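Revision sheet: structure tokens.
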Amino acid sequence: MDKKKILEKFPILRKIRTKQIKFVFYAKMYLDKNKYCKEIIKEKLPYQLSKFKDRMVNTKTGYPIEYQYNKVFNLKLASKKINKILIKPNETFSFYMSVKGADKKEKYKKGLTLVNGKIEFVEGGGMCQISNLLFQVFLNSPLTIVERHTHKIKDFPDPMEDALKGIDATLAEGFLDLKVRNDTQNTFQIIIEFDDEFIYGYLCSKEEIKEQYKIINKDLRYIKEKDKIYEKVDIYRQTIQNEQVINEQKLYTNKTQIGYELPKDVEIKEE
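Predicted:
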């Protein structure tokens, strides 16, 4: 009997294995010599660098809407450990190091999570909506992306039609994290806020920054490989000063499998 079948047959072993994986995951961070940010202040830093929003409840998933409301609960619970956190010079922000222990007093609810290519209902599900938002905020800043992972499968359409493609950041405690490092002499601050419909993420700074940043998509295409459809798109960052683009840099090409039916007018090429 292989390891996967043993863990399925004996749930207690799965729990033990999960705890072991998480212990090693955090132990590595405690020993990796990075200085992880942890200070949260009540005040907002004076200069706002970037701000984005995302609709929280996605009615296009095809799953019971209760899991969307559970996700909203999870997002608000985790955000308490992130909102107004400072990223000082030479500090690193880790999503999981920051939200660790957020559910000690009030437990996460079951939300949708992609596990081994399949949607499952797990406690804390839907957390990627914060990491997606934060990654977009970080891309529009001088912060250095240290770790980011794209979703292998995009299971349903974006809740906002004008959303940029290829700027997601998936999470899996014990395996996949979102990390950025502050290699500047400025201090930054993450802000997470909510209203009835949207979650807002933005970045403030202690000192004013003259440059602005804009992320754009180029060459969005859909391709077919071995009976599977993939979305590929190039991600560029423009640096803007005095309303003029002074630099444009290609950051990466994002590729993810499409797990839903595309509109009939979308061209799909063989590759």
